[in-house]
Amino acid sequence: MRYALLGDIHSSVEDLKDVLNDIQKHAPDAELIGTGDLFECIISKKRAPFERFTKLDDVMLYSDELLDMLSFPTVRGNQEERIAQITDSDEPLLQRIRMMEERIAIGKSAQVIHGHQWEWGGDPWMPVLPETGPDLIFYGHSHDSGLSIENQVEEIGFGVPYSVTKGRTFVNVGAVVGDRAWVLYDPAGTVTFMKVMD
Ligand SMILES: [Mn+2]
């Protein structure tokens, strides 16, 4: 079973359409898993502590077309956390957002997490990678595709399979919004960074 990882969609219908078509083209057998920030919260981080809302319409961007495409399991991102934090309503979509897990396991040694839970800093903006945990972690949040093996940042290209069996490996899946990037994971031991080409 292969996996297609995708996230940081930020409610971009057009970019998501292109990525889903790309997955269909290159890996129609792959199981989809989301890395979080599927939705765009329109209330800023600054305003959020002081405001409360009773309708998702006032808090996030979404449409039926978007929701129809978001049928795969996903971890929650900081956008979903903010939406849940500032909205009080009985809309089923909000219940669904509240149910999103922080982590999803893939097999015995791989895990998916959005990554905002870690400390971030520097330029390029990078997370302080946790020293313990699974051998293979997929994350997002920074909208940069990237690969770290044993705390070493590796050069990557798109469409090239990289081994994930050389030590503790962190895969930054990149963003659907703007970049139309995603990652194909083959549990036989490789990841391939993918990007929709025009
Ligand atoms: Mn994020």
Automatic annotation (TrEMBL):
It comes from the Bacteria. Residues 1-180 form the Calcineurin-like phosphoesterase domain. Gene3D superfamilies: 3.60.21.10. Coiled coil: none annotated. Pfam families: Metallophos_2 (PF12850). InterPro entries: Calcineurin-like_PHP_lpxH, Metallo-depent_PP-like. Belongs to the metallophosphoesterase superfamily. YfcE family. This is Calcineurin-like phosphoesterase domain-containing protein. It comes from Bhargavaea cecembensis.
